[in-house]
């Protein structure tokens, strides 16, 4: 079974996000909101999502570090890879987009590597490149342009341990 990783997006209504968690039951779900900070929303997310999934918070959404105690892990953007060692007590997922970032994430529990497929104006690197990255970091999660079962099936045939998406879970 592969890891399914839902990364939230504040451009979708919060009730729709919670409904997607309940209905799709991703293995991991990450609270990510770069638009605004709402601690009551984060607490609602924690209380709801932990019933269905391991829960993560994006580093940039963590304004109150005390909240980290409620999460299973943290998702670090590629600009914060130097902080991996600061979160040894949590599951660390690191965002990567190139070979240097992958190598700098060797101590992360998981990495996302993107974009695999074309996504929002970005050209995907493809499954062959994904498989090369998987040889460097054994816990690689594919990300980027995964919007339907068509892409998921390609990921299942790859060496990745799973896939991450926003739109796949919300459409």
Automatic annotation (TrEMBL):
Residues 5-167 form the Thiamine phosphate synthase/TenI domain. SUPFAM superfamilies: Thiamin phosphate synthase. CDD domains: TMP_TenI. It holds the Pfam family TMP-TENI. Gene3D superfamilies: Aldolase class I (3.20.20.70). This is Thiamine phosphate synthase. It comes from Caminibacter mediatlanticus TB-2.
